[in-house]
Write a structure and sequence with these properties.
The chain has 396 residues and is of the alpha/beta class. It folds into two domains: 210 residues, Rossmann fold (3-Layer(aba) Sandwich); 166 residues, Glycogen Phosphorylase B (Rossmann fold). The protein has 16 helices and 13 strands. Strands 3-2-1-4-5-6-7 form a seven-stranded parallel beta sheet, sandwiched between helices. The chain has a six-stranded parallel beta sheet with strand order 10-9-8-11-12-13, with helices on both faces. α9 links the parallel β8 and β9.
Length: 396
């Protein structure tokens, strides 16, 4: 089959949350179908990375995308009653390109994120990977951030579209049981399946690493994630304010490593606190995971499955995480995820790990391997091939 794959990001390289899932989904599709990729590219490097997928795609279109210009236009349309999210990714040029594909024998569209459904040809069956129910994030922002009212308005507008798109789709994929349950409440008549992310266990293998990361020769706990993303920023600020100080009084040599690209000004200020190291982007996160006594994920806002958790578990590391993070796993936290419901919990659990020698636990790695596999997407591509008949979705 010829499949149109729409993505709001270039699905390559798989080194960031949204790109990781998009990459593996595209690769799974390309094993049995001819994939025509249309996506947005934020830089010349992004365009180059898009064309590196030429061995997996029958055609590639990467449209240059300027975030600030897009935001300005989206803000105007939002003020006129539009949805900020879909307006942000609005493009006449991309719409014209999709129209030019009418000569191809396209059999279906796969839309990666709700923002791209606006480009899905109406005459083709639609498969939507909504990933997370983003409207819920906007509602959470509305309760915790300024300007709360505007966030809630966007939440309502986007939720209406999510319901409409899920009802239109032959099948909608969600990244976790929690997202699946929420989407079923929004669109009860839709066919929705949870397909959880996997991990590249050959790459995230602690036995391959021997050298410690250069910024630290002492014991440390680590947080890994994009540091211009509000829930990550909020989590690190809270951890430094409430947890790190008492821990450092117990362990004077302790460091807290914040590892991730694009640290915001707020995050950079955390680096002024004794013992806090803000690395910025690093070429390889594995050493930072491998030599950590533990990994922390104290997010107070958590949507979907956190790749940072899966990668830490693949490296055989315990993760001290919030209940919000644990809930994304559908009430069954993976082996190695230590749920902390209070500052006292975090301090007690991290003290336990800091008192033990730094090592990796093979049992955690094997448990993660059994539960998190990119093969889940392969079953979906098999179902897509049969989408002209009655669709029967395998729930993994």
């Amino acid at each position: 089959m010829d499949i149109l794959f729409l993505s709001h990001c270039v699905p390559n390289p798989p080194d960031k949350g949204e790109k990781i899932r998009a990459f593996h989904e595209l690769i799974a599709l390309s094993k049995k179908h001819r994939v025509h990729l249309a996506c947005f590219a934020r830089s010349a490097e992004d365009i180059r990375h898009a064309h590196e997928l030429k061995d997996h795609c029958a055609s590639i279109y990467a449209e240059p995308f300027t975030p600030l210009r897009a935001l300005a236009g989206a803000a105007l349309r939002f003020a006129c009653g539009g949805c900020l999210t879909t307006s942000y990714y609005g493009s006449r040029r991309l719409r014209r390109y999709i129209h030019s594909l009418k000569s191809l024998p396209l059999a279906a569209t796969v839309s990666y994120s709700s923002a791209m459904v606006q480009y899905a040809p109406s005459h083709l069956p639609l498969w939507l990977d909504i990933v997370d129910v983003d409207s819920e994030k906007w509602f959470q922002y509305g309760s915790t951030r300024w300007p709360g009212l505007l966030y809630k308005i966007e939440g309502r507008r986007l939720r209406a579209l999510e319901s409409k798109y899920a009802a239109r789709a032959e099948c909608t994929l969600a990244s976790s049981p929690l997202e699946q349950k929420l989407l079923l409440e929004i669109a009860p008549q839709a066919r929705i399946v949870s397909v959880t992310n996997g991990v590249d266990f050959e790459y995230f293998d602690p036995s391959l690493l021997r050298e410690r990361p250069s910024p630290s020769n002492r014991r440390y706990v680590a947080f890994v994630g994009s540091m211009d993303y509000y829930p990550n920023v909020d989590a690190c600020c809270w951890f430094v304010d409430c947890i790190f100080g008492p821990l450092r009084r117990r362990f004077p040599d302790l460091e807290f490593l914040i590892v991730g690209r694009n640290p915001s000004r707020t995050v950079r200020k955390l680096g002024q606190v004794d013992g806090v190291v803000v690395t910025g982007g690093v070429p390889d996160v594995r050493p930072y995971l491998a030599f950590a006594h533990a990994v922390v994920a104290p997010l107070r806002i958590a949507r979907g499955v956190q790749n940072k958790i899966l990668e830490a578990l693949a490296m055989g590391k315990h993760v001290c995480a919030s209940a919000a993070v644990s809930n994304t796993f559908g009430g069954i936290p993976p082996t190695g995820l230590v749920v902390c419901n209070s500052t006292r919990n975090y301090i007690e659990e991290l003290t336990r790990f800091l008192q033990a020698p730094c090592s990796w636990n093979p049992a955690l790695r094997e448990a993660a391997r059994r539960r998190f596999s990119w093969q889940n997407f392969q079953s979906i591509t098999d179902q897509l091939a049969a989408s002209e008949g009655e669709t029967s979705v395998v729930h993994r």
